[in-house]
Every structure is written in structure tokens, then in C-alpha cells.
Amino acid sequence: MVKGNSRAVDMMIYVFLAFIAFLSMAPVLNTLAISFSGKIAAMSGEVYFWPVDFNLNAYKSVISDRGFFVSFGVSIKRVLLGGAINFVITILMAYPLSKSGKFFPGRNIYMWFIVFCMLFSGGLIPWYMTIYTFGMLDTIWALVLPTAVPVFNVILLMNFFKGIPKELEDAANIDGAGPWKTLILIFVPVSTPALATVTLFSIVGHWNSFFDGMILMQHKENWPLQTYIQQLIISVNSIMNTTDPEEIKRLSNMSSQLLNAAKVMVSMVPIMLIYPFLQKYFVSGIVLGAVKE
Amino acid sequence: MKTKRILALLCAVTVFGLTACSSGGDNGNASNSTNAGNKTPQQTETNTEPEADKPFGKYNETVTITLGRQGVSGNNLPSGDTLESNQFLKYVEDRLNVKVKYDFSVEDLDAYNQKVTLAIASNNTPDVMVVDEQQFKRMAQAKMLADLTDVYDQYASPLIKEYYSSYTDDRVLNTGRIDGKLLALPNTNIDGSYQLLWIRKDWLDKLKLTPPKSMEEVTAIVKAFKEQDPDGNNKADTVGLLGEKSVVTDGGFFTFDPVFNVNHSYPKNWFKDSSGNIVYGSTTPETKEALKVLRDLYAADLIDKEFLTRKWEDNAGLVSSGRAGILFAPWFAGWALSDAVKTNPNADWIPLAVPLDGEGNRNIVPSVPSGMFLVVNKKAENPEAVIKMLNVEYEGIRLIDPASQELYKDLGVGWQNYPLNLQLDYQDSLARDIPVFDQAIKDNTSAGLPARIIPRVNSVLKNNKDPKKDLPAYADSLAFYTGAAVTGAKEIKKIDPIFYGKTATMLKKGANLEKLENETFLKIITGTAPMDEFDKFVSTWKNIGGDEITKEIADAVAGK
Amino acid sequence: MRSRSFVWNYHVMLLPGILLLIAFSVIPMFGIAIAFQDFQPTLGIFHSEWVGWDNFSYMFSLPDSKLIFVNTLTIALMKIAAGLIVPFVFALLLHEVYHVKFKRTIQTIVYLPHFMSWVILSGVLVNLLSLDGLINQMIKWFGGDPIMFLQSNSWFRAIIVSSDVWKEFGFSTIIYIAALTSINTNLYEAAAIDGATRFQRLRHITVPSLMTTIILLATLALGNVLNAGFEQILNLYNPIVYQTGDIIDTYVYRAGLLEIQYGLATAVGLLKSLVSFLLITISYVLAARFANYRIF
């Protein structure tokens, strides 16, 4: 009796969880279906999770859109460069900060300084003026240097480092290894989960941010992909379109909704590609970085 | 902000030059000249001056001009060419030996305003920008602008000067003057860009209705369109009267200005009431009445329920997919509406003048003289080069220089791809073309007309011969000819505002006041707030700056 | 001796990061001066006229200022509450699953939305919530009247909060799941022998062992009560829902960048920074005192 009841409860939990998981993906599946659908079906809301009037027009149009790929390239560049900078800075900062104030006088001053910088800002305009003064507008540096110190990641990795047994470090020191050697040969190799986690965070952060691109990039061809897509979604398809026969023809075969759906799908591809590889690490990475005893 | 978008549209329609210098083909001589500037009296008097000092004079040494501007969304340049590198730009550069360097160019209006704001804040504005009034005044206040008084007098070509002087009392150029100094070259808003009532004639016919005259008849037609399945697809998918969340906009698409005006309400404009007091149109009892009318329409499902979240292209989509059959928009909506023919060859949009009020008048508010300002940075080394660029540009846009006629021939590339996107034209440019079209149809030829009007005349002729067969020709004809002709309806009564522009308090607090107004109007129309909200709005408006502004305007008007 | 050279090396390691923070955080902080100035670009912050508290008094005279603080607080608090409870319940359910593969698949799927940007998701949401969108199709199918979610002041906050929960709940379960796996399985076995039902075990073992975690997370969330989600709201709102959806960050953005009200925008931003800093400090102290947890 008890057992039967328990099995029924189990079933309900399984079904419920599966349903929730489906809900998590539903909007994306819906967008995917729309991106492969015909214009009229998409606009009149007939598309659920399976394409109606299956066609590839939206994707063909994405492929022919040079601006989209230029921005895609900017984003890739940003992720590689910004991710690398974040990686190095995070490791270099997390290690000394993981030392207690006893071993490293001044540690707490640094820590409060970092937190203060995270919380306080002079506002957008002074921030912009600073970057302008450095001559970085319209360069990739404007996208990677102001975000070079990912405070949250530093704290996470720092806590992870704190959990590494003291004995490991002591043994290395006895062998004559200095702090740099200890960091690179001992700490980094044993911290794969945490490093994978912070790397994923910084890659996703760089890939997803649109606002700095919008503010700091003066020309369209320097926009990262998310800025490009954001502008695409909000901007009024100018009235100019309608004065041009070719444009009228092209637009009439394609609702902007379809096109946006296709672009949204394509822009998700890189995250989808790296996510499975890093996913298995981040549970332990986050847990050890955040919940320490 | 909306206005700018509309202005961009107005600009768009003048791709090939909207007007003749005067009606008829009297200026063939100008189009035969490669350098019209050489003919001006000023030029003959001053031909001892170096070449570079003439309105069209070429510089010996390359002059670099930096530029920040709004891009052209959905630009239709041939592939490989961009806003920052195209034949129009090269044409201007080559004729003057000027090099144009783009500091920034973005298409979305908000994004552009951001760029301008940040450039102003960091005191790093390019040599030239085209900005809105708020930005212009702000830059003038910060003493960032070059005084163009002398360079305009010396360098502006006769054509440019003619455009400005076609407006009575110099009222356009005056908007660019502050304390007697010309700090900006304003654009010119031509007459007749108020809304018309556009309606599906084929639907009217199907339901055996006649074109409406009064607001009541308009309401009845919207109701019929909504309920009697005019497209015969057995689905209740018609959305009613289209709307726009800005509610009221000079020259706006889908806005409700005519509904206000027919109720003798003139929101967003300044007037003297019957007892001579200065009032702000948005705060009058008539405006409350008009809002009540809209509120009732919305409650009865006769206004598109979703107009708040529709973007321009969503509304255009409703038109082209045949879900909308009635809307308010200016004459140049012809281009957008012609689109409906593609999905349904029987779709027949016709323009009508706005409804008659009780006294038999069609009330309209004339457009503000200008809304965009070409400003030159005080630090720019060659402010005159900007004027010269404008001279050359308009010889190109109006196809006065034969060389310019070859640029992107027959491709319909938007004139905004010229570096300076400042629209200039004669005040009555719309009306003065109508007789030209009439005559051309009568003669069935475009021969002997000035180069710049020929493409339009050809469109009208082509469509006249074979209606709706050639889509671009149909679109041109619907806008320039059919639409434009309606703007001159004889019952039109112009309600001239007593004040245009922005006062000091408006610059400081205007944005917050506008937000309050727009939100209140939207809430009342959609029924999310009671009618009384209007009275609350009026008193709040007065308290947070409205009274101050009223006083400033009274002073300004008295000072004149 | 050695430790001194170690410390020197630590300083060197921190140097690049600290320099970057000085360049991109500390230097712009001088811009706070704009909040007390009638800022004129040509004069810069060094020569613009000082106006004392004018910008602040103007801010408080605006009907909007109260509204944006109320909106920010309401939305943020709703998000914090929902963001604590939903993952908690979900983690409990997931904890009941013994089928490892099933569990892992579910986890992989529910973490995913966390990694999508609001730019993308807002595009998806706007489609989904439109009158012709999926949600309204379903409402119609069940015989209801379609709802204009994104332009309704009674729905907007709910949309903002639930879409945020939808995006983040999966990812937030990670910490709970970690805490759950650290529960000693002997406890469950002992309880089972004593004849405790499933629900009793949940109530008396599982939930209590998560209490510290949830209290800790709640404390840490305090620092976020003025962060209602700028990117999300910027991409989803429209003027009709300013009344319920306009928050401090979107307001500052519009005032400063679209309306050229530098002083006002900086003043509002400064006020927000101050309150946030105060709250973070409080949460740091609370966490340290009651959970013996040091965030940093």
C-alpha cells in the first residue's frame, strides 16, 4: 500500500518535472518553429512547436545579411579576447585574495576596494567620457577592458582556492616553489571545475551583453551581435523601405518576426555549443566557490 | 522624437526632388549647366576671388569634415556601397575636394540620440550633425556652435536661399537663430503634411457605404469594417482604426490628430483662447472631449486594441495583410499603403480629407516650420565647407547637375545617402506640382519638364495608363498625385499656433511634462484611468512646469 | 624572509586588476560631481557651476521619482521572494528523483535559460505574449478572452517577475541541490526504519537542513533590492506600463541619455548607489553575524 502510493507520487513528480523542463524550453522551441514557418502562419499565430508551411527563407535571408555576420565576428573576437583577459585577471586576483589577512597584510583593503568599485559608479556619462578620453571608442578594447575584472568570478574562484588543502601549498613551498609557481602548477590544475565555471560565466557575459556595444561603438560594423539584434528588434523598419520596389518585394515575403526568430536562433548557437562541455563542471564549481564550510 | 522619424519619411519622399523650381518647364537652362553657381550674380561680381571662396568652389587642399548622423534603416544601396562610402558621397567630395569622415552613424533614433547626448556631454561633437531642437538649444546654450550668419550669406547657393525665403517672414531660418545669430540651418517642413483619412474603397463598395464626411460617419464605417467582414474571409480579423502610441504627432502616421482637431482640440500646440489667454492645447476642455471620443471608440473595439505595442512595421503589416481598412496618415502614406495591392490586387486605398466639424470646416494645424537642425561645431576649421556641401548636394538631389543624374540611375537610392540629411524644399512644393501632373496627363508626356520631376511624372503617367500594374509607379502616383491633391481640400481651416519651439523651462522639464501627458492620454483612451484623470493631469502639469512655460511663452509672444 | 617576498609577489599579482579598476571605476567616480552641478559640457566637471542640492530637490519634486523607487522596490522584492521559493521547491522535487539520467537531463534543460540574454529572450517573449502569440492562442482555446500582457499595468510586473523566475529558477537550484547532497543519508535510513513517511522525512530532515542556505541566500539578496533588472525591463517595457514598470535604472537611462538631463540622471544614480552600498554592508554584517558566512 505504502509502496504503491509512493510509486504514484514518484510518477507525479517525474511528470511534473518533465513538464517544467518542457516549459523551460517552450519559448525557444516556439521561436525555432516560427523561424522555419511561412510568413502568414507565423503572423497569425498558428505556429506552436512545429513549423507550418516549412521553409528556409528566413535563414536564407540571415545568410545574405552581411551586417549580421560582421557583428557575429565582433562577438567572437570579443569573447576570445575578453574571455582570455578575464581568465588571467581572475586567477591573478583570486589567488592573493584567498590568503588570509595574517599571511597577506593589506588583503582586506584590496577586498573592500574591489567591492566598493563593484557597487559604486559615477554613472554612465562619466564612464563614457573616461573611455572616450582613453581613445577606446569604437575599438574592441572598449568592450573588453572595462569589464576586465569580473568581481563575482574573482570571489567565486577565491573561495574555491580557499578550500584547497594548505598541505599542498606547504609541500610546494618546501620544494622551493614561489607563489607564481604554486599558483600555476598546483592551484590552477586542481581548480578545473571552478575555472570552467568562471570561464563559462565570462564567455556568456561577453556574448550576451548589448548595452556597452550600443553606447561605445560608433559604427554599426563594430557592434557585437547582441547589440545588432537588440537594434533589429526595437528599431522601426524605416519607412525608407517602402519607397523602394525591391525592398517592398523582399519585405513582403518575410515578416520581421520570422527574420528575428531566425537571427535569434543563430545567435544562440555558440552558447549551445560550449554549454554541454562546461555544464558538467559548473555545479561543483559554483558549489565549492559559494558554499564553503 | 516621433517627429524626427516622420521627417525622415518626408525626406524619403523627395528622393528625386519633389518640386519644380516653379511649375512648368521653365528651368531647362539650369539643368544644362554643370555649374549653376557660376551664373549667380554674386559669382559674377566676385570672380576675382579665389575659387574656394565661391559657393561651389573647389578647395585646392583637401578639407576634412567630420560628421555624426542618423543612418538610413533598410538602406537600399547596391551591395558593396554603404552610407559611409557611396557615389552620392563621392560626388560631393569630388566636386569640392572635401573629405567626409563619419564619427558615428546609427539608424535607430534612440541610439542616435544617445550618441549625440554622449558626444555633447564629452564635448566631442563632430564638425557637423543634424539634431533635434532640444539638442540644438542645449548645444547653443553650452556655446558649442559656430555662428553661420556670415558663411550662410556668402556661401549658400541661390537655390538654398530660395528654399528658405519661400517661407513667409523668414520663419524657417528664424528657428535657427538665437540672439540674432544663425547657429543652425533648420530643415523645412513643407505645407500639407497633416493627416488624411485613408480608407479601403473596395471595402466601402462591398458594404455599400459612401465615403464619410463627418466623424460620426467615420465611426459608422469603422464599425461596419469591424463587424461585417469586409474582406469576406469569414473571420472577424479586422482590427478597426489603427493607432499610434504617441497619440498626437505633427505629420504622424496612425496618430489621432484629426479626431482632436474635429473637436476643436489642438494638443501639443500653443494658442490664444477666446478671451485672449495663452493656453496649451493639450489642457483644454475640448481635448478632454476628444479623449472621451477616443475612449469610447477604444471601449467599443473600434480602435485597434493593440495599438500601444504596435511598431510602425506592425501597422504596415496589418495594412498589407488586409486586416486594416481605415487609418489616419499624411499624403506620403501612399507609398506604404500601395503595398496592400501585392497581397490583394483589389485592395484600393483612397485618401480623403479629414472629417468636417459642426461648422463645416476641416480643422488642421500647420506643421512646425522645422524640427531638425544642421549644426556646425565651433571648433570646425571650415564651417563654409558645410554650406558648400549643402549647395552641391542639392544640385545633385534635384538633378540640376546632369552628372548627378547618372548616379544610381533608376535604382531609387534614397537621397539620405548624401552626407547631410537635411531636407529643404519650397513651402508650397506639394501643391505646386499638382497642376504639372494634371497637364502631363492631359498631354500624355513628360517632355519638356525639369529633370527632377520627370521620374514622378512618368510614374503618374504609367499608373494612369495601367492602374496598379507597376507597383512603384502606383505608389508614387498614390502619394504625389492622389494624396497630395487631397491636402488642398477647400474646407481646410488652418489653426495657426502662436508659438513654435522650446522655451528654457521646456528644455529643462519638457521631457517629464510630455511623458506625463502621453501617459495620461493613453490611460484615458484605453480606459485604464477614469476621465477625471484628465483634470488631475492639468493641475499636475501646471504645477510641475506648465505654468512657468505658459508665462515664458506669454513673454515671448508679447516681446514680438 | 620568504613570506615578505611572497607578499610582494601578491601585490604584483593584484596590480593589473587594481589598475584596471582604477581606470574604469575610480576615475569615472569623479563624475558624481555632476549631481551637484549645472553641468555644461564645454566647461567640464571642473568648471561647471555648482548648484548644491538643486538636482536632488528637482528630483523629489517630480511625481516620477516616488514612482520609480516604488516600482524598483516592488519588482525587486517580488523577484527575490519568488527567486528563493521556486528553486527551493524545485530542488526538493528533484531530490526525490533517483533515476540519475532523468535527473541530469532535467538539470541540463532547466539551467539553459540562464545563459540566454534578455535581448534574445525579450524578442521571444514579445512574440509569445502578443495577441496572436502562443499564450493567447491557448487562452482562446480554453475559451478565455485574450489579454494584452505587455501593455497592461495589472500584468506587467507579473510578467517581469515570472519571466525572471523562468529564466533563473533552474540555475538557482544548484546551490540547494548542493546542500541537499551534503545531507547525511544515514538520517534518511534511520527515519525510514522508524517508519517515517515520505512527507515526514521531507519535513523533518530535508527542509531543516536547507534552512541555513535559504536564510543565507535571503540575506545576500538584500543587496539587490534596488536592482529590478535593467536589461530585462528596457527590452520589454513601453510608455503605458511606466506606471508599474519604470525603474530607477531605466529612468536614469532615459533622463541621461535620451533627454540630456545630466544632473538629474546622475543624482538619481547616486542615490541608488548609496542605498545599495548601505544594504550590501548590512547584508554582509548580518551574514557574518548570524550565519558566520563571509561573502568576501
UniProtKB/TrEMBL annotation, chain A:
It is found in: Cell membrane. Keywords: Cell membrane, Membrane, Transmembrane, Transmembrane helix, Transport. CDD domains: TM_PBP2. The chain crosses the membrane at residues 12-36, 79-97, 109-128, 140-161, 182-207. GO terms for biological process: transmembrane transport. PROSITE patterns: ABC_TM1. Residues 72-277 form the ABC transmembrane type-1 domain. The keyword Glycoprotein does not apply. One of its GO terms (cellular component) is plasma membrane. It is a multi-pass membrane protein. PANTHER family: ABC TRANSPORTER PERMEASE PROTEIN MG189-RELATED-RELATED (PTHR43744), POLYGALACTURONAN_RHAMNOGALACTURONAN TRANSPORT SYSTEM PERMEASE PROTEIN YTCP (PTHR43744:SF9). This is Putative aldouronate transport system permease protein. It comes from Paenibacillus endophyticus.
Automatic annotation (TrEMBL), chain B:
Residues 26-49 have a biased composition (Low complexity). Residues 1-20 form the signal peptide. Residues 26-57 are annotated as: Disordered. SUPFAM superfamilies: Periplasmic binding protein-like II (SSF53850). Keywords: Signal. It comes from the Bacteria. PANTHER family: ARABINOSE-BINDING PROTEIN-RELATED, DIACETYLCHITOBIOSE BINDING PROTEIN DASA. This is Putative aldouronate transport system substrate-binding protein.
UniProtKB/TrEMBL annotation, chain C:
Residues 69-283 form the ABC transmembrane type-1 domain. The chain crosses the membrane at residues 12-36, 68-94, 115-135, 173-193, 205-226, 262-287. This is Putative aldouronate transport system permease protein. One of its GO terms (cellular component) is plasma membrane. It is a multi-pass membrane protein. The keyword Transmembrane applies. Keywords: Cell membrane, Membrane, Transmembrane, Transmembrane helix, Transport. It holds the Pfam family BPD_transp_1. One of its GO terms (biological process) is transmembrane transport. It comes from Paenibacillus endophyticus. It comes from the Bacteria.
